[in-house]
Here is the input.
Amino acid sequence: MTSPEAKRLWRRAIKEHFNCQCVYCGETYELHELTLDHVIPRFNGGQTITRNLVPSCRKCNQNKGTNNWLTWMRQTFGHTQREHKIMEYIT
Here is the structure.
């Protein structure tokens, strides 16, 4: 397996782990429509590792930007069960 193929499969596995849903808004998308978001942004020292990457729609990914994910999520969507799913995944 080549390195690009391994990376593609790794990214796909993260999206499939969340059933192709944006972890922030909860909407379901096709694999190719989802991006991967750094829960702790790289700007703030977040790493590109499995436990720091979650599937996100483009809108949520762009709106969150470099903000703290939990603060942004609560301001945008209120308290939801999705935040618990993220917390379990990243810890």
Q: What stands out?
A: Helices lie at 3-17, 58-64, 69-77, 81-90. The radius of gyration is 13 Å. Residues 3-17 form the longest helix (15 residues). The longest strand covers residues 35-38.
